[in-house]
From TrEMBL:
It comes from Flemingia macrophylla. This is dual-specificity kinase. Pfam families: Pkinase. Keywords: ATP-binding, Kinase, Nucleotide-binding, Serine/threonine-protein kinase, Transferase. Its EC number is 2.7.12.1. It comes from the Eukaryota. It catalyses: L-tyrosyl-[protein] + ATP = O-phospho-L-tyrosyl-[protein] + ADP + H(+); L-seryl-[protein] + ATP = O-phospho-L-seryl-[protein] + ADP + H(+); L-threonyl-[protein] + ATP = O-phospho-L-threonyl-[protein] + ADP + H(+). InterPro entries: CLK_kinases (IPR051175), Kinase-like_dom_sf (IPR011009), Prot_kinase_dom (IPR000719), Ser/Thr_kinase_AS (IPR008271). Belongs to the protein kinase superfamily. CMGC Ser/Thr protein kinase family. Lammer subfamily. The keyword Glycoprotein does not apply. Gene3D superfamilies: Transferase(Phosphotransferase) domain 1.
Amino acid sequence: MGEFKWLQQVFEKLGPSLYDFLRKNSYRSFPIDLVREIGWQLLECVAFMHDLRMIHTDLKPENILLVSPEYLKIPDYKSTSKSPSSFFKRVPKSSAIKVIDFGSTTYEREDQTYIVSTRHYRAPEVILGLGWSYPCDIWSVGCILVELCTGEALFQTHENLEHLAMMERVLGLMPQQMLKRVDRHAEKYVRRGRLDWPEGATSRESIKAVMKLPRLQNLIMQHVDHSAGDLIHLLQGLLRYDPFERLTARDALRHSFFTRDHLRR
């Protein structure tokens, strides 16, 4: 028998993903200061990638790992459960993170119109077939920050028109100039220059799922005790419909949510 040679790859040991941490914590939100620290690191990573002309295209809590698995238990004053264990929630002991899964990462090209990003974190220009670039990562970051603040994904849907309607419910009407440029696959979602909603809804349950969503400002105010104003303003920049008007990662890092009364580095 021939000699077998094994090639062993050794990776550093890391903690759980942000999604797994939320799941094991009964989908309870992170403290705002922790959201700030994680958001800063995430945007630094995205800025670094974009400087290298690389687009991750699949940013989501599952692809962001905590460096350490250690956590603390703190009182959860907002818990509505009667279970004694629900009076406390887990908080990561360290905010250090690492972004993983670069299997879908690509360089910028002119003809990028194929579908990218996991559904809940997919930018509107991707759904509408308008082409995408670096700003699709920025949209994903905005969705992730909201999820860390609330404990739940912002857009919980698996259908395109419902997804677009949820965006309008949370963020306001989409610009008509975007809807006028949709590709032939997305034309069915638009009627007379507006989303074909609720007329085009697949069911009453779909309409209810959209209608129950609050506006972005109200959603954040429900979950954030301080820095809410700065965070809302930042999110409005990260979640702008028009990708050309969306904040860049470098611009976001200079936002007052990260700089006001917070010594960063």
